[in-house]
Design a protein that fits this description.
- There is one protein chain.
- By secondary structure, the chain is of the alpha+beta class.
- It folds into two domains: 4-124, no CATH class; 141-271, no CATH class.
- It is 65% helix and 10% strand.
- It is built from twelve helices and five strands.
- The protein has a five-stranded antiparallel beta sheet with strand order 1-2-3-5-4.
- Strand 4 (100-103) and strand 5 (109-113) form a beta hairpin.
- The two termini are 17 Å apart.
- It comes from Ostreibacterium oceani.
- It holds the Pfam family KilA-N.
- Residues 5-139 form the KilA-N domain.
Length: 272
């Protein structure tokens, strides 16, 4: 996921950040849903609970080879006493825990691994936990779709280099000017656009005067995968010496066939 995200759960904004490729959810924000003025008090009360400490200890033993079990046993024995208090920073400092992080300041707060955060949310409010999970899952699905689009776009860029190299080696005589060379590249790019989208880059821009970018920036994952395949094929056809009209005909037929297959593929549909 991206470095920082925010989701809205029952009118409460909850921050999420990535730490070592794991999702950490802000306990401070969750606590604000119940106690907006003193959210840290709620977190400390949760940490005083023996069941909470059992949960945290087991989680750390499963995921943290540097967890200090001796210090943990000492803390667990004190749990339940009226005099027992524990802050997130103390928990991390004493035991070497990695499931919770806490930082003071305007942009700080207490964050916990999603496994732990969901348990805290349940302690605060079962209803809040269920909505938190729902919004978190929605965020992850959106990220998966974006990831699929990014992968497809990068694949297209890589194959475009193969495509342009084939143009340079086979279609551009040494005596052409830079302007003429650019025209050849644009012409070949539009062969791919025509084969897949049925229009040139200029035609698309004329139809979408207010949109930024180009026609390929608005392609979906299926189209990007197909476009990457067409770029490879066109590079091969150029090297074989096929004329533009013949290449366009073959590429268009290929695009039709591939799009039919790709739009029916379940794995690709998940990335849409």
């Amino acid at each position: 996921m991206s470095k920082n995200n925010t989701i809205t759960v029952l009118n409460t904004e909850v921050k999420i950040k990535a730490i070592d490729q794991n999702d950490f959810i802000c306990l401070t924000d969750i606590a604000k849903s119940r106690n907006p003025d003193h959210p840290d008090d709620l977190i400390r009360n949760w940490l005083r609970n023996r069941n909470t400490l059992e949960l945290l200890g087991i989680w750390e033993q499963l995921h943290n080879p540097d967890f200090n079990p001796v210090e943990f046993d000492g803390i667990r024995k004190k749990a339940g006493l009226n005099s027992f208090t524990l802050t997130p920073k103390q928990w991390v400092s004493f035991t070497g825990a990695i499931g919770i992080t806490s930082k003071a300041g305007r942009y700080g707060g207490t964050f916990a691994h999603k496994d732990i955060a969901f348990e805290f949310a349940s302690w605060v409010s079962v209803e809040f936990k269920l909505y938190l999970i729902k919004e978190f899952q929605r965020l992850k699905e959106a990220e998966q779709k974006q990831l699929g689009w990014d992968v497809g776009r990068q694949l297209t860029k890589i194959n475009y280099r193969i495509h342009t190299d084939a143009i340079k080696e086979n279609l551009i005589p040494a005596e052409l000017t830079k302007q003429q060379v650019s025209f050849v590249y644009a012409s070949e790019a539009d062969i791919l656009n025509m084969a897949l989208f049925g229009k040139t880059a200029k035609q698309w821009r004329d139809e979408h005067p207010n949109d930024k970018g180009n026609i390929r920036d608005y392609a979906n994952v299926t189209q990007l995968v197909c476009l990457a395949n067409l770029e490879n094929l066109n590079a091969h056809f150029i090297q074989q010496g096929l004329e533009q009209p013949e290449r366009l005909r073959i590429l268009n037929n290929t695009a039709i066939q591939q799009m039919k297959l790709l739009t029916e593929d379940k794995a690709v549909k998940k990335l849409q």
